[in-house]
Amino acid sequence: MAGIFVGELLTLSMMAFALGMDAFSVGLGMGMIKLRKQQIFHIGLIIGLFHVIMPLVGMATGRFLSGALGVLAIYIGGALLLMLGIQMMLASFKQSEERLISPEGPGLLIFAIGVSLDSFSVGLSLGIYGSKPIVTIALFGLFSMVLTWVGLLVGKKVQSWLGSYSEALGGAILIGFGLKLLLPI
């Protein structure tokens, strides 16, 4: 019995790590915007929270909607990331500090939803499988929160090295990630 739980825990941890790597990648791009440590903390916390909420909602939704919303969620997430990346690229060429979407307030919610939509799809699948919801969402939230923080901090370091070009690079990363979701190869 304990071996089955350890095996399931290992499987769920690998899934949580994979979903968290999405958050890391996007955090890396977003971290190239000048962010304060407090903003980095809040961004990681919110993304971790959404990586708890989205799979939980997905698990609750279950088998009925799995096929239709699974693919739709990926396309919505890709479009949001593409939009954020384009906005970052455009902002890097302007002198203005004002952004259409910023990683705070409503912009942070849009960012968090975009990053965590794939965990909704995974939640749909896990709901069918009958996975333990508490363990699953705890691992998803923890991995994505920590990996977002790591991505944001690495992005912040790269930003200090690249200066004004870092925001364009961050936008390019988000555009690439959005295209990867929209145009699976």
UniProtKB/TrEMBL annotation:
Keyword Electron transport recorded: no
4Fe-4S found in the keyword field: no
Membrane topology: Multi-pass membrane protein
Signal peptide: none
Keywords: Cell membrane, Ion transport, Manganese, Membrane, Transmembrane, Transmembrane helix, Transport
Subcellular location: Cell membrane
Residue spans crossing the bilayer: 12-33, 40-58, 64-86, 107-128, 134-155, 162-183
InterPro entries listed in its UniProt record: Mntp/YtaF, Put_MntP
Primary localization: membrane
Function: Probably functions as a manganese efflux pump.
Family designation: Belongs to the MntP (TC 9.B.29) family.
Name of the protein: Putative manganese efflux pump MntP
